[in-house]
Each structure stands twice: as C-alpha cells, then as structure tokens.
Design brief:
748 residues; two-stranded antiparallel ribbon
C-alpha cells in the first residue's frame, strides 16, 4: 500500500495489476482459525467487518480499495480478470468435491463488495458514454443472484452447513453493496432471496445479510413488485427483532464479542424495519399492532445506547407518520411514557431524556384527540421536569416537548387545564414558568439556549394571549442576555427580540427604552467601560449593542433569516430612539501618537497592548451599524452565489486546475472583511435551505411565515422605503465603499 500511495513509485505496479489483485483475493480467503472462531458465533462474521483493520483479509481489502482509487479503469479491468479466474477456480474445486471450495468464492464476493462504489460509478459513466464498462457490476450481480441466492443455489452448490451460511450471507452482503447500480429487474430477485433468509430456521449470518439487502432493495422495487414481499418482510423482521432484543436484554452475561454483535445486529434489523415501514402506508397500518410493542420494548431496553434508542425512535416516528397508525400508537406508548415522566428521579440514566424525545416525536403528527389525551397524561410531568431538573439534556428535551405540545394543541390547549380536564392550573402560566426557569441565571448557559425556540413559538402561536405578559418576557430575556457569557446563547436569545420586532418594531423599541438595563453580574462590573463604551443605561442600549456585536454568531438558516430581516424592520421603522443609541464603532488610536508608517495606525503588538491597556473604541450611531450588518448579509449572499458558480466551472476542470484555483483562493481574491470566506460559508447554509442546521426538519420553522421571506428582497424593500423619505443617504455615508457597492447592487 505504501507503493500505491507514492505518486512516482506506484507506476511500477501498473503492469502487474491483474496478478496482484488475483493474489490479494487469495489472501482474503477465510483461514481455518477464522472459520472456527466464526463458526461458534457466525453472526460476528458479518458484524466484525467494520472493525477488522489488522488481519490479512482486511488489509488486502484496503489494498484493493487503494489500487482502484489510484489506477481507476485499469484496476477495474484487472479486477474483472482476477475475479473471473477466482470464480473459475472455485467452480473447478466444487466439481472436484473439495469441501472448502466456497472459501474462494466467498473471498471473491468480498473483494468486489469492498470496491463496489467505484465499480458502480465506473459502469454508470461507461453507460452514459455508450461504451463497455471496465467491470460489469450489473452482470456480476446477476451471477450472484442466480448462482448463490436463487432457490436452487443450495442444492447445486453442495456446501457444508457452515459454508452455506458464510457464502450465502456474503452473497446477500455483496448484493446490498451493488444495489445502487442494480437494474430494476434485480429488486424482485434480491428481495426473494433476502426474505428466504429471514425464515426462522435460517442461520444468523443469513438473517443479518438479509437485513442489509432489504434495506437497500425495498426502496428500489416498484410498488407492484414490492407489495407481495411486505407481509413476509414484517413477519421475518418482527421475529428477528424479538430475538435480537432478547439477546441484548441479557447483554453482559456472555462475552464481549456476543454483546457487541447484539448491538450491530439490532441496528441492522431496525434499519431494515424503518425502510419497510416507510415503503407502504397500508402495510404499516396492517402490521403496526404487532411491530409497535416490540419496537417500544427495544427502545426502553436500549435507551442507554443513544444510537439504538434513536433507531427505535425512528421506526416509531415512521409509524406515527401514517395517520391510521397514530391512535393505536398513542394508546400503546403514551401510558408507558407518562409512567416514566411521573417519577423521573427513580429512572435509569438517559430514560427520562429519551422519553421526552419520543413523546415529542409522537405529538408532532397527533390529531386534536390524541394531543388532548397526551396532554392529560404527560403535560404536568413535562413542566415539572422543566421546573426542577438541573440536567441540560433533560431541560432541552423538556423544552422541545413543550414546543410539541404547543404545536399539537395550539390555542385550544390553554382551555384543557394542566391536568387535561380543565383543572390543575393555568396552562399559559405553566409555559411561562418553564421558559423563566430555562432563563434562570442559576442554570448554565447551555440550558438557556432552549428557551429561545420555546418563547418564539409561544409568541407566534399565542399572540393575543402573550400580549399582556410581553414586559415580563422582555425583562427576563434581557436579564439573561446581560449575564450570558457564551456567544451562541446571546445569538439564540436575539431571536426572541427579532420575533417581537416583526410583530411591532415601535412597540418593542418603546418597551426596551422604558426599561433600565439589568444590572451586570458581579464579575462583569469591572470590565464594563474599559473599551471606551459606557455601560448601557437602558435595555434598548443593552440589546441593540449585543445584537450588532453578535449578529455574525447567529446560526441556522431560519434564525439568520429571522434576525437579519428583523434588523431591516427596525431600521425601516425610523424610530428616533434608535438614533440616540451608540454602539461599538472603530478602534481609537492611543493618545500620544504611536502611529505607523505614513500616518497609519500602529500595529497593536502584545507589548504595546500591555503598555496602552485595553483597546478603546469609538461610539457609532446604531442605525449606521444596522446598515453595516445588512450590507454584510448582502455581501455574504453575493460571495456564496459566486462561489457556487465557480464550483460549477471547476467541476469541468482537471485536478491540477482545481489545485491552482484553490491556491489562488488561499492567496486572497474575494475581498475578505466581513463578507470573507467565513461569512460566505455561513450564508451558504442559508442559501442551501439550512442543510447544515442542527435540525433541518423543524416543523415549527417550516410552517412559520418568516420562512417564506426572500431576505435580500425584504432588505431591498425596506431600504427603498428609507430612501423614499430621504433617510438612507445620510446613513449610507457612514458605510465603507465595499458595503455601499453591495447595497447599490441590491437596490438596482
């Protein structure tokens, strides 16, 4: 592999590729010790593949991957020759009655599967150019389906029991690996083979291989081809789910390998089950009553494993997405979840948090009747956790669960009472108390982040009910943002003020201006004013200074859009109170000279900084800095769009040209500044509809009218309104030329 990776030395290998690959496949054959070890636990044969990095079998697989990556089509042609030789050898050995003939065939299937991605890409490229592929992956797959996975393959093969399990399991594995490039006709044959391996008498490696094949071929099969396979798939996977769950329930009693396999096998079963559930709503409805209890039990037993708990939750979420499944699923799950939430202190680690997450998942598609029943059973317990827990994970899940309650019940939920029967207290007050607890300074900053989306949805969904308590919300949020140390918390809380600005900008400004600035935490008193900016005297000064300073820290497509458009709304309001606010401006040169060459500012070295003390800044008018922030947004959008255009051109260039372009980018072009590469990357998330968000499937955000805003057009409209009344030009005079050009381009 060292020779392959070396650009100059690798050329010496090119003439011997076919022989090298042929011999590598030979070394990939299962050894006697491996067969013996895996014979006692054949499941481990499949489960260990991702972990084995040291055996000759695994090392040769990595070598094949390196060869195909380095030599491309030449290596694929050599692989085709080597595969044909090895398959012929296996057939000859079988005909001669050799007991271990299957090992050569199994190793050959493994070799093809290791490099399947490159083979599929190569065949697709050849097909698009109407030429023969270097390696015909679809032909190889057809051979596997006919020779190893057809109904008569076992009798024709005459393999031993252990060999049959290993070989057929490997065939299912390689069929799954080749699925992305498989012709539609292959789906039916692969599904039939997979389901035959899910029968109760099938060995474990066959079942695991079948799960992998099902996960790949169910989405590819046409509906009419798939439908007859669904009932057997539910039966087989259900049986395997029960057995896998039973083995994990006893984890710890066996050795580490057995416990490790149980986790891997259960993941594969749940992965296949998720694909099957999503494939057909009618079948999911028919089998939900059998599937949901087993899945819920697996979720409860594996709650300490975040990956397996998430797998089980995904299956339950897929069932909940089928309207006909929702009533029975709620009837099954909600009482169990309520019993957990009623006594959180007695639950094992992770169970409470995972229970809240699952409840939120079930609430999202719930109709009014199911939402009301879940509210009656669980709402008071969720609020109690939000009011008493100190665990950040539990607080996050409780906040998300309260959002789900609000989404499912809406305004009607306020009439249900805390107990769901019209009693138990005021529901709105419970929401407010939970949000106030999340904003409490005694909790760490990580907990307060989750108050922002909860408050945002309360303001959006309950506007008339929230109006009387707006001063309470604004005061609590301003107090918490004053004490915040983490930029991500400040950026998150800005969304609350942005939401209020969209509702009524002048009312927000008046409310903030009438409130004195909350006192600074004891540790911050000595720091304030050291930079030349006097401490804020009103909440308006506090919030707007932090907004300007931390707008660049806002993350997530929706929050970027929300806060940026809110700045445009505030600026367009022309409220005179905004003009009286001073925010941090440019650095002030130290007194007594110290200028650099040509009268410019001296570079601030460590020695100079120590002698001069904290760096000083001038006060800048708030409206000018708001215009700066809007111009930065426009610059970032323009650079992101330009970068995408460049990428489209670069896709057609060679590797060398790509490298040269990358070097040019590193050396400078693009302008830097606030709209530089970091800003462009940030904006790209917005322009690509939030693909890098933490949760890009947030239903609250998707439904929000803010999501429909074209932010650049929104900014342009507000700036044109300012220009019409003669207020834009004076503000633009304080903006640097680069930002001015960006705004002029936008307004044109």
């Amino acid at each position: 592999m060292t020779l392959v990776e070396h650009p100059r030395l690798s050329a010496t290998l090119e003439s011997g590729l076919a022989e090298m690959i042929y011999r590598a496949i030979g070394y990939m054959r299962m050894t006697a010790s491996q067969e013996e070890s895996w014979g006692d636990d054949p499941n481990q044969y499949v489960a260990d593949e991702d972990d084995d990095m040291s055996s000759a079998r695994a090392t040769c697989g990595m070598l094949l991957d390196e060869l195909v990556d380095r030599f491309g089509d030449d290596a694929q042609r050599a692989l085709s020759v080597a595969v044909e030789r090895r398959l012929s050898e296996a057939e000859l050995a079988r005909a001669n009655g050799e007991a271990n003939w299957w090992k050569t065939r199994e190793a050959t299937l493994l070799a093809v599967g290791v490099v399947s991605d490159a083979l599929i890409e190569g065949e697709a490229a050849a097909r698009s150019e109407n030429v023969a592929p270097s390696f015909a992956a679809s032909v190889f797959l057809a051979n596997v389906l006919e020779r190893d996975l057809s109904s008569g393959a076992t009798a024709a093969g005459a393999v031993t029991d252990g060999g049959e399990s290993f070989l057929r399991g490997r065939a299912l594995w390689v069929a799954a690996r080749l699925a992305p490039g498989a012709p539609p006709a292959a789906a039916g044959a692969a599904l039939a083979a997979a389901l035959a391996s899910l029968r109760p008498t099938a060995s474990a490696p066959l079942r695991v291989g079948a799960c992998r094949a099902l996960a790949q071929y169910v989405p590819l099969a046409p509906k009419d081809v798939l439908r007859p396979f669904l009932a057997p798939a539910y039966q087989g996977l259900g049986s395997l789910l029960e057995s896998a769950a039973g083995s994990t329930a006893g984890a710890g009693s066996g050795d580490a390998l057995e416990d490790g396999y149980a986790e891997d096998a259960l993941h594969l079963v749940l992965e296949a089950m998720l694909v099957v559930v999503k494939a057909d709503a009618d079948a999911a409805t028919q089998w939900s009553s059998a599937l949901a209890p087993a899945t819920l039990r697996v979720w409860a037993e594996k709650v300490a494993d975040p990956l397996l708990a998430a797998d089980a939750r995904d299956v339950l979420e897929a069932l909940a997405a089928v309207p006909a499944c929702v009533p029975s699923l709620h009837a099954l799950a909600v009482p169990t979840l309520a019993s957990v939430l009623a006594s959180p202190a007695t639950q094992p680690p992770m169970l409470v948090e995972s229970t809240l997450d699952l409840l939120a998942v079930l609430l999202r598609p719930a109709a009014a009747s199911e939402a009301h029943a879940a509210h009656a059973a669980c709402f008071r317990h969720v609020v109690a956790i939000a009011l008493t827990s100190d665990d950040v994970g539990a607080l996050q899940s409780a906040a998300e669960c309260l959002r789900a309650f609000l989404r499912a019940g809406g305004d009607d939920a306020l009439l249900w009472g805390v107990d769901g029967q019209g009693g138990g207290g005021d529901v709105l007050r419970q929401y407010l108390d939970a949000a106030a607890r999340l904003l409490s300074p005694i909790l760490e900053d990580g907990a307060a982040v989750f108050a922002a989306p909860l408050l945002g949805q309360m303001l959006r969904r309950l506007p008339t009910r929230m109006a009387p308590v707006l001063p309470e919300i604004v005061s609590a949020t301003a107090t918490r943002i004053r004490a915040a140390r983490q930029p991500n918390l400040i950026a998150a809380l800005l969304s609350v003020f942005a939401r209020l600005a969209h509702a009524d900008a002048n009312a927000l400004v008046a409310l903030l201006a009438s409130m004195p600035a909350p006192p600074a935490p004891s540790g911050q008193h000595s720091e304030e004013g050291a930079d030349g900016i006097p401490p804020p005297t009103t909440a308006l000064e506090l919030v707007t200074r932090l907004w300007i300073a931390h707008q660049s820290d806002v993350q997530g497509a929706f929050d970027i859009k929300l806060t940026t458009s809110a700045l445009a709304v505030l600026l367009a309001s022309g409220n005179p109170a905004l003009g009286s606010v001073g925010v941090k401006g440019e650095p002030v040169a130290p007194e007594g000279g110290g200028g650099g060459q040509n009268g410019g500012a001296a570079i601030r070295t460590r020695a100079r900084a120590k002698a001069a003390g904290p760096e000083k800044f001038s006060l800048a008018p708030l409206p000018v800095k708001m215009l700066d922030a809007l111009a930065d947004f426009v610059l970032e959008a323009q650079e992101a769009a330009s970068a995408r255009e460049d990428d489209e051109w670069e896709d057609d260039d060679g590797d060398d040209e790509d490298d040269e372009d990358d070097d040019d980018d590193d050396e400078g072009g693009g302008g830097g500044g606030a709209g530089g590469m970091f800003g462009g990357d940030l904006l790209e998330r917005l322009l690509n509809k939030g693909l890098d968000d933490v949760d890009d499937d947030d239903a609250d955000e998707t439904e929000d009218p803010i999501s429909a805003i074209d932010t650049q057009a929104f900014i342009a409209e507000r700036l044109k309104a300012l220009h019409a009344v003669g207020q834009l030009a004076p503000l633009a005079a304080g903006v640097n030329p680069r930002r001015q050009r960006a705004l002029m381009t936008l307004l044109r």
